[in-house]
């Protein structure tokens, strides 16, 4: 984890753009944990570790082996000990390849609230958003709540599916280059992700229905405030051409993303 990064001149009401220019794995391996906080832990009743071998040149990962994590306490600390006994290592996902989706699971600015804040649930400040689209070529826009913004980044992943169902992605060390840009006139109330093809709004809540409504309202606000649509037109467009998905269900406050394609708009019409 890097941060907090003090952004000179950042003030409450500004927007901080965090653009990922590149990200490469530092090691040849990553770890997926079917953890006790996973969405279906009760179905399995155990924690399981799958070790993936990362092939950056091919853009793929393959499972090397897996093993059950057996301790008197559930996993909640770093430092998993891989069993030396080969008999404890079980084959996993034979003849399966996973496309790499390198990205930051965690990034954001200092939350609005004072005092200690739980780092697990995401919020309007960003944090543990876990959207796999926040990788090279993409930028996240965060509302600034404190002088200097106090930006931070970490939790690199090499691959993840929407929902992050088992509790983790392919967690791996990475080297990355990011660019920070301060916008004084650009306004977003919650993290807004820009990829080469889409604008993506986010909503968070302990209840998935409320997270969905929050993401939908954030996407409507974007279309009204930054694309010049009326609210009625934005509502129609989102219904016929927007795409919503579950970002993650394992970080206490669940996440939903709402996506609108840039290709829907005539080039040169409207602004951010």
What would your notes on this structure say?
With 272 residues, the protein is mostly beta strands. The chain has a single domain (1-272), classed as Acetamidase/Formamidase-like domains (Jelly Rolls). It contains three helices and 16 strands. The chain has helices at residues 41-44, 208-227, 231-241; strands spanning 2-5, 15-25, 29-34, 47-55, 60-69, 98-99, 103-108, 126-127, 139-143, 151-159, 170-171, 174-183, 192-194, 198-205, 243-248, 254-261. The strands form three sheets. It has a seven-stranded antiparallel sheet with strand order 12-2-9-13-14-16-15. Strands 1, 7, 8, 10 and 11 form a five-stranded antiparallel sheet that branches. Strands 3-4-5-6 form a four-stranded antiparallel sheet, with no helix packed on it. The longest helix has 20 residues, at 208-227. The two termini are 30 Å apart. The model has no long low-confidence stretch (mean pLDDT 93).
Short description:
With 272 residues, the protein is mainly beta. It is 13% helix and 37% strand. The chain has three helices and 16 strands.
Question: What percentage of residues falls in helices of 4 or more residues?
Answer: 10-25%
Order of helices and strands: EEEHEEEEEEEEEEEHHEE
* CATH superfamily heading: Acetamidase/Formamidase-like domains
Count of runs of 4 or more consecutive helical residues: 3
What is the overall silhouette?
A: globular
Secondary structure tally: strands: 16
- What topology, given as strand order, has the largest sheet? 12-2-9-13-14-16-15
Q: Gap between N and C termini, in Å?
A: 30 Å
The mean pLDDT is 93
CATH structural fold name = Jelly Rolls
């Amino acid at each position: 984890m890097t941060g907090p990064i003090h952004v000179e001149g950042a003030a409450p009401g500004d927007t901080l753009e965090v653009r990922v220019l590149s990200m490469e794995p530092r090691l040849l391996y990553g770890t997926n944990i079917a953890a006790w906080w996973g969405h279906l832990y009760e179905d399995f009743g155990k924690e399981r570790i799958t070790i993936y071998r990362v092939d950056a040149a091919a853009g793929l990962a393959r499972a090397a082996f897996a093993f059950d994590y057996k301790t008197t306490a559930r996993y909640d600390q770093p430092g998993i000990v891989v069993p030396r006994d080969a008999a404890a290592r079980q084959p996993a996902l034979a003849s399966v390849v996973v496309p790499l989706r390198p990205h930051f699971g965690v990034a954001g600015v200092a939350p609005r609230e004072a005092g200690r804040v739980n780092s697990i649930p995401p919020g309007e400040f960003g944090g543990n958003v876990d959207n796999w689209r926040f990788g090279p070529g993409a930028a996240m826009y965060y509302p600034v709540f404190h002088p200097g913004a106090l930006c931070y980044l970490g939790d690199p992943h090499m691959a993840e599916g929407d929902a992050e169902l088992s509790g983790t992605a392919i967690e791996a060390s990475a080297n990355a280059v990011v660019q920070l840009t301060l916008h004084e006139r650009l306004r977003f109330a919650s993290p807004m992700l820009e990829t080469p093809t889409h604008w993506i709004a986010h909503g968070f809540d302990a209840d998935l229905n409320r997270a969905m409504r929050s993401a939908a309202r954030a996407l409507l606000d974007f279309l009204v405030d930054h694309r010049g649509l009326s609210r009625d037109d934005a509502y129609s467009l989102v219904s016929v051409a927007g795409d919503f998905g579950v970002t993650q269900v394992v970080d206490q406050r669940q996440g939903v993303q709402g996506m609108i394609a840039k290709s829907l708009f005539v080039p040169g019409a409207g602004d951010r």
